[in-house]
Amino acid sequence: MKAINPHWRVLTIGDGDLSFSAALAKKLAGGHLTATVFDSLQMLSEKYGLAHYQQLKLLGVDVVTNVDVTDPQTWQEIGRSNQSKFDLVIFQFPLIPNDFSASQYQQLSMQGSTNTLNRWLLHCFIKHCFEHFLAPDGQRLAVITSKDVKPYRQWNIETSLLKGLTGRYLGRSNFDIESFDGYQVRNVDRDKFVKDTQAYSYYFSDKPQEILEAELETPAYCDDPQYCAMCRVGPIETQQDWQAHLISKRHIKMDEFEQQWRGWLAQRQC
Question: For the chain, what is the radius of gyration of the CA atoms?
């Protein structure tokens, strides 16, 4: 993740055990961070303990529980004691929990797979960042950090999430967990640590960001027609090779995910 200005107003979404927010708080000026978790305070305590929660409270960081980024009714407490608009909003290693919503799983079963619901979570995150969380006169940056392995890379974060939204994908940077002292990625449903693997921070904005974009990587598959963006493969230079790729198991599966996603978006809005 690229350098964060210590004076930026930063919001973290769904920060598991709050260890990322606790590490981030050390890099920011006092009062410039608001941290949120999806769980209630009781569930946070039962799953992860309250060590990082208490650390943040001692630092004067506003911590809000029961926040579902897809549901505006859960945002009422965000910014109440600090700022209500932010320069940067960060979602670290998002993943729908097993108890996400019985009704949403029922709806999803009619459309396809959990691939769609994870894309929906991130789509709503970006939409609500631009429309609600980010200050009009601020940096207007939304960042998603995710693993570069299946099933996470099958969400097509770089090429599919902005459908129907304002804003642009700016590029990505390697995520170096060592630069966030004390941060450990947790399992979304229980008190277990997740194995470290290659991960990237993906940047989105709806305002010019020339300086930042120059520091970010944009893989060729994002906009080069000789690549298959869904499958992240290429260059594919001949018609014969394209035909072979289009009937490959990998492409057929990714195309299935993409069609499910487009069908989902056509029927609902965040």
Answer: 19
